[in-house]
Design brief:
Blueprint (H helix, E strand, L loop, with lengths): L17 E11 L3 E10 L5 E7 L4 H15 L10 E3 L5
Parallel strand pairs: 1-4
Antiparallel strand pairs: 1-2, 2-3
């Protein structure tokens, strides 16, 4: 499945095969808009990386993805055939 293709989700057979990354924002009265970026393992539904910030720029997305990679693949991800999916093209 290509991100944004509108197709159905692929069949996930084991952990660390497909991860999804997405963000949400919400208003905190005393602060303003805050953003949460989450990387989720589609098999286990475990949050493997995240970033909470006052802005949503590529750096925050990269930080959440790097956290996930470092947590799940401390010896490196090469050869694991991990796929990252995002619906919004970030």
């Amino acid at each position: 499945m290509r991100p944004g293709s509108g197709g159905s989700k692929p069949r996930v057979k084991h952990p660390n095969q497909y991860w999804g990354i997405d963000t949400t924002k919400f208003m905190v009265e005393s602060i303003g808009w805050v953003y949460l970026v989450v990387v989720l393992d589609w098999y286990t539904t475990k949050v493997v990386g995240w970033n909470f910030s006052l802005r949503s720029r590529p750096g925050e997305w990269r930080e959440s993805f790097n956290m996930a990679l470092n947590n799940q693949f401390p010896d490196g991800v090469q050869g694991n055939e991990l796929k990252l999916v995002s619906r919004n093209g970030s």
